[in-house]
Design brief:
heterodimer; A: mainly alpha; MetI-like fold; 2 domains; 14 helices; 2 strands; globular; B: 386 residues; alpha+beta; 3 domains; five-stranded antiparallel β-sheet; 15 helices; 10 strands; 16% strand
């Protein structure tokens, strides 16, 4: 390299040095340590003891682990598609020529701003079996609402409801993408007499497919790691551990049972699951994603 | 015909949008409504949307009262001298001025009583027990002496918000001012740390051509893939080794080391600014840091706003971090303090819990209203460029 290039090199390194320190101390070292701990028996108080793949083997026979994984996948499988569709639907409606658009947008967006602890409190109150607003509302439809928070069949739907209330973030992202779709496309479709459904299916969805893909990936990553909502609403996992989620069980292992090694092993399995699902989602949608630049 | 169809379409759109927004806003309205109610109204069925105060005519004056249970009709209010208090008894149990009651052996005994009031049989006009509002709660003696009965329709409702609930909730949370102070300290430090460090790093990743830059940036992007639980335990152990558990330090120190996501966002923004600007400055003999400080930063204020705003929100809302690192109640943040309050008082004092939730949630909503534009732009930016 020339002197000039060396100078640029060192200036560049100097500028990114905060990131380098953070990368080494808060990412590189922890990732390495996490791999190592995952093969150890480690309780923080004493030194880690190498036990080979025992932590990973334990997972196979740990019924609670499987329960938490099943609960989490159930939550993701229901809340993710529902959330994506709901957010898209609201965004499409708001993208029509409607009055008070920003007012509507604000209303749909507000719940996603509420701190998760506060929204957990609100839903604990709304879902209350005896004095809850939801069951009161259901009684008008002649439905006797369940005990959302203590009936093991309804604890996961409770969390899903709460998650759906917060779809505003995804909705705003869709809306921004929708506003970039050229109007002429719709106008020429109108001339051809296309129905609203045809326009949605053949113009809107293909045009914003990169954003749908983005929301899908973010949704996969987020919903598999959901922690605060179930932790606050159901503490140790609720009736029969029906609301024990993966991240909550991982937290319990780390900080309640002092099984740091097992917690790290669980974290790596979670990472693997996220990678596989993300890869699957990418593979199955790749052909359908339209990039305007290409 | 076509016009009619268009009109119909519009109508359906508005109906859907309106119905949806009602559903989305109800939980927030309900939170605030509950926060402004007295405890007995939180547990009333059917619930009321607007907190109220009941009034009854006592001694010719409208006075504040609380509603007690419904009375089974017909009934009599009698004064039992042996107990020294008023009772509500079924009409058929009083014969010739004497209350008939079974004793422990099952024999009927007669107790002379004085009839104070008659409650007629009627389905349309239910009667209720009424207690003056200033009766201290939980003292049965005062309660025994002050209640009376009257028809339900004789009570009048007036809208009345219990603003005092907020003060009482703050008092019940005990360390609320400390929670607020800790949260604000953390918000200030993390916003400062994130904005300054990621702006510097993003500049290095976008405006200076150095060998290996793009490869390094790919590494930075790859770190975004790593889920938090993977590094959670080692980072905790690291802070433990430093002796920082139970202090605020683990919650803000990391923000001074440029997280990949914010670097990415700012880099995208820096790249849109024409090269000529900094080249001109370089020719004039400006060093790189001055170009960054005096030319780039002022131009990038909107993007910096977005990053700072998101960080503020993230710190204000964070639950897992404080949960892991904070041990002493005095060090808690608002989010953790609210959860702690719920775990201690949850299940009964819903009016205080909702008042506390409002106090934690509303500042963020207010902040949103003041910064709406950069907010929405920022969110769309993360999605489109992502």
């Amino acid at each position: 390299m020339t002197r000039r290039e060396w100078k640029d090199f060192w200036t560049g390194i100097a500028f990114i040095s905060p990131w380098i320190v953070g990368f080494v101390v808060l990412v590189l070292y922890p990732v390495g340590a996490s791999i190592y701990y995952s093969f150890c028996d480690y309780d923080v108080l004493s030194r880690p003891v190498w036990i080979g793949t025992l932590n990973y083997q334990d997972m196979f026979t740990d019924a609670v682990f499987w329960k938490s994984l099943k609960n989490t996948l159930y939550f993701a499988a229901v809340s993710l598609p529902l959330g994506l569709v709901l957010a898209l639907l609201v965004a499409v409606l708001l993208n029509q020529e409607v009055k008070f658009r920003s007012g509507f947008r604000t209303i749909y967006f507000l719940p996603s701003l509420v701190p998760v602890v506060a929204s957990a409190m609100i839903w604990l109150w709304i879902l209350n079996g005896k004095f809850g607003l939801l069951n009161y509302g259901l009684s008008f439809l002649g439905i006797e609402g369940p005990n959302w928070l203590s009936d093991e069949n309804w604890t996961k739907p409770s969390i899903i409801l709460m998650a759906l209330w917060g779809v505003g973030g995804a909705m705003v992202i869709y809306l921004a993408a929708l506003q970039d779709v050229p109007r002429e496309l719709y106008e020429s479709a109108d001339i051809d007499g296309a129905s609203a459904w045809t326009k949605l299916r053949h113009i809107t969805i293909p045009m914003i497919s990169p954003v749908i893909y983005f929301n899908l990936i973010m949704g996969i990553i987020g919903s598999l790691q959901v922690f605060a909502q179930p932790f606050i609403m159901f503490g140790g996992g609720g009736t029969n551990r029906s609301a024990l989620f993966y991240a909550v069980y991982l937290y319990q292992n780390a900080f309640d049972y002092n099984q740091m090694g097992y917690a790290c092993a669980m974290a790596w399995v979670l990472f693997l699951i996220i990678l596989v699902l993300t890869w699957l989602a990418t593979k199955s949608t790749r052909k359908h994603i339209y990039y305007a630049g290409e | 015909m076509i016009q009619f169809k268009q009109f119909l379409n519009k109508l359906i759109i508005y109906i859907l949008l309106l119905a949806g927004s009602v559903v989305f806003i109800i939980p927030l309205v309900w939170m605030i409504s509950t926060a402004l109610k007295p405890i007995e109204q939180t547990m009333a069925m059917p619930p009321s949307w607007i907190p109220y105060q009941l009034y009854a005519e006592i001694d010719g004056q409208q006075q504040k009262v609380k509603q007690g249970e419904l009375v089974e009709q017909p009934a009599l209010v009698v004064y039992d001298e042996s107990l020294g208090k008023d009772l509500i008894v079924a009409q058929k149990n009083v014969v010739d001025g004497a209350l008939q009651r079974r004793n422990v052996d099952g024999d009927i005994i007669e107790i002379p009583v004085e009839i104070r009031a008659e409650i007629p049989a009627s389905l349309e006009h239910p009667w209720v027990k009424v207690i003056p509002a200033n009766t201290p709660e939980g003292t049965s003696d005062a309660y025994d002496e002050t209640w009376f009965v009257q028809p339900l329709e004789g009570l009048t409702k007036k809208v009345d918000f219990r603003w005092g609930n907020f003060g009482k909730a703050i008092k019940a949370m005990k360390y609320f001012p400390m929670y607020l102070k800790n949260t604000l300290i953390l918000c200030f430090l993390t916003v400062l740390g994130t904005v300054s460090s990621s702006a510097i790093a993003a500049y290095g990743f976008s405006r200076i051509p150095w060998r290996g830059r793009n490869k390094m940036f790919l590494v930075a992007l790859a770190t975004m893939m790593i889920p938090f639980p993977v590094v959670m335990v080692p980072v905790y152990c690291l802070f433990r080794w430093l002796g920082w558990i139970g202090t605020l330090r683990p919650l803000w120190v990391g923000s001074f080391f440029a997280g990949a996501f914010n670097v990415f966002l700012l880099r995208q923004f820096f790249m849109t600014i024409p090269k000529d600007l900094s080249d001109a400055a370089r020719i004039d003999g400006c060093n790189e840091f001055r170009i960054f400080w005096q030319i780039m930063l002022p131009l990038c204020r909107p993007a910096l706003m977005v990053v700072g705003l998101f960080q503020f929100m993230a710190t204000w809302n964070d639950f897992l971090g404080p949960l892991i690192y904070l041990t002493d109640q005095k060090d808690f943040t608002l989010a953790l303090g609210l959860q702690f309050f719920q775990s201690q008082h949850g299940g009964t004092e819903w009016h205080y819990l909702m008042a506390a939730s409002t106090l934690v949630g509303v500042p963020i909503i207010i902040l949103f209203f003041f910064t709406q534009k950069s907010f929405i732009e920022g969110i769309s930016m993360t999605g489109i460029k992502g």
